[in-house]
Amino acid sequence: MRVVLAEDSVLLREGLAGLLERFGHTVAAAVGDAPALTAAVAEHEPDIVVTDVRMPPGFTDEGLRAAFALRAVRPGLPVLILSQYVQQAYVAEIMGSGIGYLLKDRIGHVREFADAVERVAAGGTVVDPEVVRQLLAHRRDPLRRLTPREREVLALVAEGRSNAAVARSLVVTEAAVAKHIANIFAKLDLPLAGDDHRRVLAVLAYLRG
After folding, report:
1. Do 40 and 28 meet the contact criterion of CB atoms below 8 Å apart?
2. What pTM was computed for the model?
3. How far is residue 206's CA from residue 39's CA, in Å, rounded to a whole number?
4. How far, in Å, CA of 29 to CA of 5, rounded?
5. Total Cβ atoms within 10 A of residue 24
6. Blockwise average pLDDT, block size 10, the chain, 209 residues
7. Cβ neighbour number for residue 195 with a 10 Å cutoff
8. How far is 166 from 161, CA to CA, in rounded Å?
9. Rounded to whole angstroms, how far apart are CA atoms 54 and 60?
């Protein structure tokens, strides 16, 4: 895939570029601020954008704002947002937008990071497990209806995992996972969406409250 990467830290930017290329992707541009990100996407028309939330000049949410602006011009442009910390304000804006969201600590899990890039580029949803954990903590009371196993399945679904991936993680059959998901959606009064992406968005909308 052709990737445009935006990260203001030179060391992390170079490390990410090397990591992406190690997995066979082409880093068309690696930039350090939001205006350069916008220009690079216009020039290179990448398959996916990987960007930090905070970048010069204000180090607030320049990367996130640039990502939303880019998707307004190119609807469906795959974007993976990287953040140092879980920011509830960012989570509320990102969830349901089809943009992936990972904490930078996840980059150290090389295979997980590479999988996340590929899943987002393919139109999937990826959410950092720590973000999911905090969302689950905020919705604790309604989740009491779920069994411990159903809560495990819910957390994995909210991360953007397919039934097959959930089954591998929990060492159970896909049929068992499908049954758990049907029970979860029934107990939480959620529509059982027809594909993995819509299903994840439904779960995230619920967890946001």
Report:
1. yes
2. 0.77
3. 36
4. 6
5. 8
6. 96 95 96 95 96 87 91 92 81 73 88 91 87 77 85 89 92 93 85 72 73
7. 10
8. 6
9. 5
